[in-house]
C-alpha cells in the first residue's frame, strides 16, 4: 500500500487529493496544526481512513517527526496562507508559511532520507500568481515570473527552492504551476465562491447585494477535482519536472457574475453588485491564461469541467446549502 503525506489537508485541494489518493488505495496522512482545527471533522468525514498528524510548517523538527511516523512514499505540500488579498496585511507570516514552509519540508525530507532524497517523491503547490504582471500570453513553464503580491513572491521562493533541491540533491521534486481552481468546497473569501454564495443568498431573499473589488480582472478558472489528479500524475513520472495546469480559457469577474446570476434566474445583476474599495488590491494581476500543453502531452492530463459548468455546479451547491441552512433556522 503506497503511503502519502499531505500538508494543507483541511484546504479545498487537500480534501480532493485525500479523497483521490484514498480511492487509489493509498494510506493517507494529513498534517494538521492541532486537533482543535474546526475543519478536522470535515476531513474525517470526506476521507474516513485519514490519519492526522500534528505538525507545523513553521517548525522543522515537527516536520521531521511527522515524516518518521508517516514514512511516506509521496509528500504533497499544499499547506500555505493561500488568500492573496490577506498577504499584504500579513506579509511576514505569508513569507514564513507559504515561502519558508516549503524550504522546511524539503529540509525535513533531506534529513529524513539521510540525503537520499530521490526515494520520497515531493510535490510543491506552485501558483500562476508567480507570473503576476505577465510578459507573454498564454503563460507556459518558460514564462518569466513577476509576482505582484507578497503571496506571489513567497510562492516563487518555494518554486525555486523545489527546483534547487532537485538540482542540488537529486530530489524527485515536482512543481505544479496551478492556475485558479475552484469547487463547491472553495473558501468564501475567494471571488468565485464569494459570488456563487452571494448569488444563492440573493436569489433566496437572504441578502440584498454583494460587494466586490475589480470586476475586470481575468482568470483561467478550472475545477479543483481535475487539478489534484494532475498533482498525482506528476509524481508518477520517472523524472520530476515543472508543469503548468490550466484550462487555456480566460474569463473576467463580470463573466463570472453573468453565469452565476443567470443560473439563479437573474438576468440583470447591475443593481445587485456594489464596488467596494476594500476589495481592490494594492497591485493587481490583470490577466492570467495558461498553456497546459506539457501536462497534456507528458501526463495525459486534460480538464474535464469548463467554466460555465463549474460556476453552475457551485451556484447549485450554494443554493442547496443555503436552503438547508434557512430551513434549519425556521
Ligand atoms: P487569486 O484568487 O487572487 O487569483 O488567487 P481570488 O479569487 O481571490 O481573486 C481573483 C480575482 O478576483 C478579483 N476580485 C476579488 N477577489 C476576491 N477574493 N474578493 C473580491 O471581492 C474580489 N473582487 C474582485 C481579485 O482582485 C482577483 O483579480 C487564487 C488563490 O487560490 C491562490 O492561492 C492561487 O495560487 C491562485 O488562485 C492560482
| Rg estimate, integer Å | 20 Å
CATH architecture of the largest domain: 3-Layer(aba) Sandwich
Task: Let me know the CATH homologous superfamily of the largest domain.
Answer: NAD(P)-binding Rossmann-like Domain
Distance between the terminal alpha carbons, to the nearest Å? 48 Å
Strand order of the largest sheet: 3-2-1-4-5-6-11
- Helix tally equals 11
How much strand?
A: 15-25%
List the secondary-structure elements in sequence, H or E. Answer: EHEHEHEHHEHEEHEEEHEEHEHH
Low-confidence stretches: none
Bound molecules: guanosine-5'-diphosphate-rhamnose
Coarse shape: globular
Structural class: alpha/beta
CATH topology of the largest domain: Rossmann fold
Largest sheet: 7 strands, parallel
Report the mean per-residue pLDDT as an integer: 97
Number of spatially distinct domains: 2
Model description:
By secondary structure, this protein is of the alpha/beta class. The chain contains eleven helices and 13 strands. It has helices spanning 12-23, 40-46, 60-70, 86-89, 91-112, 150-169, 191-203, 224-235, 253-263, 293-299, 307-329, and strands at 3-7, 27-32, 51-54, 74-77, 121-127, 172-178, 181-182, 210-212, 218-219, 222-223, 242-245, 251-252, 273-275. The strands form four sheets. The protein has a seven-stranded parallel beta sheet with strand order 3-2-1-4-5-6-11, with helices on both faces. Helix 6 (150-169) links the parallel strand 5 and strand 6. Guanosine-5'-diphosphate-rhamnose binds at residues 82, 84-85, 127-129, 178-180, 189-191, 194, 212-214, 217, 219, 253, 279, 281, 284-285.
Amino acid at each position: 500500500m503506497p503511503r502519502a503525506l499531505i500538508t494543507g489537508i483541511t484546504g479545498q485541494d487537500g480534501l480532493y487529493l485525500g479523497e483521490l489518493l484514498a480511492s487509489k488505495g493509498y494510506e493517507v496522512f494529513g498534517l494538521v496544526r492541532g486537533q482543535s482545527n474546526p475543519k478536522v471533522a470535515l476531513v474525517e468525514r470526506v476521507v474516513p481512513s485519514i490519519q492526522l498528524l500534528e505538525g507545523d510548517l513553521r517548525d522543522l523538527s515537527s516536520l521531521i517527526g511527522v515524516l518518521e511516523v508517516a514514512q511516506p512514499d509521496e509528500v504533497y505540500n499544499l499547506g500555505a496562507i493561500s488568500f492573496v488579498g490577506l498577504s499584504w496585511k500579513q506579509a511576514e507570516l505569508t513569507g514564513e508559511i507559504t515561502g519558508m514552509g516549503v524550504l522546511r519540508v524539503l529540509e525535513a525530507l533531506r534529513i529524513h532520507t539521510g540525503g537520499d532524497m530521490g526515494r520520497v517523491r515531493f510535490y510543491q503547490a506552485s501558483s500562476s500568481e508567480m507570473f503576476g504582471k505577465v510578459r507573454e500570453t498564454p503563460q507556459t513553464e518558460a514564462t518569466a515570473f513577476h509576482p505582484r503580491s507578497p503571496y506571489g513572491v513567497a510562492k516563487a521562493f518555494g518554486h525555486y527552492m523545489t527546483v534547487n533541491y532537485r538540482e542540488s540533491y537529486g530530489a524527485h521534486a515536482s512543481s505544479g504551476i496551478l492556475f485558479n481552481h475552484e469547487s463547491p468546497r472553495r473558501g468564501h473569501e475567494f471571488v468565485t465562491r464569494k459570488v456563487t454564495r452571494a448569488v444563492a443568498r440573493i436569489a433566496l431573499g437572504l441578502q440584498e447585494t454583494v460587494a466586490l473589488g475589480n470586476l475586470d480582472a481575468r482568470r483561467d478558472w478550472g475545477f479543483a477535482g481535475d487539478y489534484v489528479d494532475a498533482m498525482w500524475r506528476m509524481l508518477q513520472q520517472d523524472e520530476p519536472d515543472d508543469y503548468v495546469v490550466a484550462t487555456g480559457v480566460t474569463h473576467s469577474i463580470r463573466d463570472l457574475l453573468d453565469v452565476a446570476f443567470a443560473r439563479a434566474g437573474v438576468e440583470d445583476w447591475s443593481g445587485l453588485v456594489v464596488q467596494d474599495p476594500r476589495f481592490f488590491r494594492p497591485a493587481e494581476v490583470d490577466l492570467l491564461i495558461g498553456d497546459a500543453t506539457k501536462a497534456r502531452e507528458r501526463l495525459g492530463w486534460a480538464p474535464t469541467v469548463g467554466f460555465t459548468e463549474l460556476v453552475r455546479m457551485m451556484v447549485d451547491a450554494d443554493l442547496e446549502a443555503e436552503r438547508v441552512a434557512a430551513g434549519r433556522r425556521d
